[in-house]
Write a structure and sequence with these properties.
4-stranded mixed sheet; mainly beta; 131 residues; 10 strands
Length: 131
């Protein structure tokens, strides 16, 4: 796992905990390369019956699997105006996070849960936005 030494988890106004940075992160910078544990589609109902329901990702080129993201990967909060994005590496079994914009020290790092930074797909919870 590769992670910027400046990122940390702290309470977030967006929901519970979030990932923040103690130093400025320039646009395009890799923030974290998170290893994943890939599970087959048949395990999804079991995940839905646990607290992991709010933390797993749909996985695979055909969205037929799911993945538990290690590191900080499952702690980044959702925003429809994210400052970071994630890119799955199916072969390497990692979820890679990159800065979409310049991120200032003290700022929360957010991603769009749809997988597309401009995506507007609904989510299963009430969305809170900063500002």
């Amino acid at each position: 796992m590769q992670v910027l030494p400046s990122i940390y988890v702290a309470p977030s106004s967006l929901g519970g905990r979030g990932v923040f940075t103690s130093e400025d992160i320039p646009e395009g910078t890799p923030i974290e390369i998170s290893p994943v544990i890939v599970l087959p589609q048949k395990d999804v109902p079991h995940i839905h019956a646990t607290k992991l329901h709010d933390y797993y990702f749909i996985w695979g080129k055909k969205d037929k699997e799911c993945a538990i993201i290690l590191g900080y990967g499952s702690i980044y909060n959702h925003s429809y105006h994210p400052n970071a994005q994630y890119v799955p590496d199916y072969q390497g079994k990692t979820l890679d996070f990159y800065a979409l914009t310049d991120i200032k020290a003290g700022e929360e790092i957010t991603v769009n849960y749809s997988g597309n930074p401009d995506g507007a797909r609904g989510v299963w919870f009430e969305v809170k936005e900063e500002g």
